[in-house]
Amino acid sequence: MVGSWGRLAALVRDPEAARAVLEHRAALPSPQQHVIYVQELIHKPGRDIRVIVIGGAVLGAIYRRAADWRTNVARDAVTEPCPLTPELTAIATAAAAAVAGPAASPAAGGALGVDIAEDQEGRLYVLEVNHTVEFQGFQSAHGDRLDVAGAIADHLLRQPVPV
Asked: Which DSSP category does 37 fall into?
């Protein structure tokens, strides 16, 4: 449930591997480490998509390409700009809104990284929504065309100050 950079994730291909992972997790000392999140493997075309959503609005998207099943930039994935389609924008916005909650204002949610996989038929699946989005690979893919840090700062400066 808690991880970063593709760590603490395991690709389980058969029951024997599943038993080994479950046994390992059960032996860890913290009850929090016993929580297991299971996700179906999406057979993607060697890449996934990272969309950054700030204050409910999509800033942009990148492809993350890797030979590994994990396409994290921290694992040396290569990034390049990904065109924003209406479908991609809608799914990323909906995923960000889902974690912001129904009572949240449109500007809620802060800066989020929505990770999306496309299967071999082009269907899109949300893998996760990162509340502590890292954007070095995103920024390097877009260069001067987008300013992620500036967009986050602008969003924060527009928020009401509690009195």
From this structure: -
